[in-house]
Amino acid sequence: EPGASIRRRAAPIPAGALSDAERDAPGPAGIAGRNIRVHGKLDYQRLDGTAIPVYLAKVEVYDDDGNNPLNPDDLLASTTTDADGMYDVTFFWFGLDESQPELYVKFVAESPRVRVWASELEVVLGEPYFWQTTIYNNYAGSDLLIPLWSPPDDPGERAAAHAFTTINRGGAWLTGLDPAWGASQVDVFTPYADDNSHWESTA
């Protein structure tokens, strides 16, 4: 259902009820392209129940092409969340090889200043912590509003979102005092082996 989530590398993206043939069906002859707007809000629930906007998360909109590593999903647009956790991006869709896109949104805990990792393996793969929505199969509209979306209700999920947002907000404040701090890169590891969550900073 819309709003459900898949975390990090835990499982492949579900293809829903569509077969590969249905997913890749050519668009009808003469079909006109259109702009598609994708927008919404990303937050997380603090332990005291307060909803906190996720600040500066990378937001990527994809067209699902199935679970084929030789045919990766198409990145259609990207943006970042603002101080209120809001994102809003518009892209042009023209279905040359399929009738309608299978859209989903991926939220990545990565900004110019902060990256959150779950393991050393993800560092090697270059894949920071991320969450993603369910797939909106055969999306025929032009304005996809994804209601308020939060990572799953799990301490590890909340910790990743909390660390990412808190360090980004603190960094923005410090940069206002001393612009030189903006050159630092902070890597956060959580959860980590043997509960050894920590952060590393490079100037």
On the 0 to 100 scale, the average pLDDT is 79
Strand order of the biggest β-sheet: 1-9-7-4-5
Radius of gyration: 18 Å
Regions with little confidence, pLDDT below 50 for 5+ residues:
1-30
Q: Which outline best applies? A: globular
Beta content: 25-35%
Cα end-to-end separation: 43 Å
Give the helices and strands as they follow along the chain: EHEEEEEEEHEEHEE
Class of secondary structure makeup: alpha+beta
- Counting DSSP E segments of at least 2 residues, the number of strands comes to 12
Number of helices: 3
Biggest sheet details: 5 strands, antiparallel
The amount of helix comes to 10-25%
Describe this structure in words.
Mean pLDDT is 79; it is low at 1-30. This protein has 203 residues and is an alpha+beta fold. The protein is globular. It is 16% helix and 34% strand.
Break the fold down into its secondary structure elements and pairings:
Elements (H helix, E strand, L loop, with lengths): L4 E3 L12 H4 L10 E12 L5 E3 L4 E6 L10 E7 L5 E8 L9 E6 L5 E4 L2 H6 L4 E4 L9 E7 L5 H23 L7 E5 L8 E5 L1
Parallel strand pairs: 2-10, 8-11
Antiparallel strand pairs: 1-9, 2-3, 2-6, 4-5, 4-7, 7-9, 11-12
Quick structural overview:
By secondary structure, the protein is of the alpha+beta class. The chain is built from three helices and twelve strands.
